[in-house]
Amino acid sequence: IAGITQAPTSQILAAGRRMTLRCTQDMRHNAMYWYRQDLGLGLRLIHYSNTAGTTGKGEVPDGYSVSRANTDDFPLTLASAVPSQTSVYFCASSSGLAGSNEQFFGPGTRLTVL
Amino acid sequence: RKEVEQDPGPFNVPEGATVAFNCTYSNSASQSFFWYRQDCRKEPKLLMSVYSSGNEDGRFTAQLNRASQYISLLIRDSKLSDSATYLCVVGLNTGGFKTIFGAGTRLFVKA
After folding, report:
1. What mean pLDDT do residues A20-46 have?
2. CA of B18 to nearest chain A CA: how many angstroms apart?
3. Distance between CA atoms of A72 and A60, rounded to whole angstroms?
4. B43 — contact with chain A (CB < 8 Å)?
5. Where are the alpha helices (DSSP H) in A1-114?
6. B87 touches chain A (CB under 8 A)
7. Half-sphere exposure of residue A86: CA atoms within 13 angstroms, side-chain side
8. pLDDT tens-digit profile of B71-103?
9. Residues 6 or more apart from A106 whose CB is under 8 A from it?
10. Which residues of B touch A107 (CB under 8 A)?
């Protein structure tokens, strides 16, 4: 049982390029989330999904999009990367409604935009 | 004012010490409360949920005071392995879901 996986582990990207961060969970959790973590700011919610087919905006959604075609996958896309999107990105999932229960996190993706 | 504020730290304590972390939140509609632990360059992991009645798990005790909008975490008999960053987390749903993480408090336990 893998839990929740993310890919790639790290990536260096030129500004203006499109990038999709992948996230897959095998726990059949309803809710999934994307966060970014920057030094001194803690984790900030980008987007979330309560169930397959639905998504919602978090605290810092601009420049990012998500989709939830099925229960297991929740990819995060940067349509045109900018240097301010350099960060560590964590995907997470939880049972029940978003925010109500323990969230399980993936190992993170370290993204550098030059 | 940040929606979730924590002691800035870092806390440097000797093994065996008792250490307390404090956290305040600004939105009275907050519904769920947690403490997470994050090791350096790793993902956060749940330490414990926090309930109004308070809860204890071994050396760890969490308290919630809804009237004061305050959450605490007490670690007794600190171990070297307790060295990490402790994140206070608040969840609320007011027509749209929000999970808000505090910036974290770094703990160093020394021999």
Report:
1. 93
2. 25
3. 23
4. yes
5. none
6. yes
7. 10
8. 999 999 999 999 999 999 998 877 667 788 999
9. A3, A4, A5, A6, A23, A25, A90, A91, A92, B43
10. 42-43
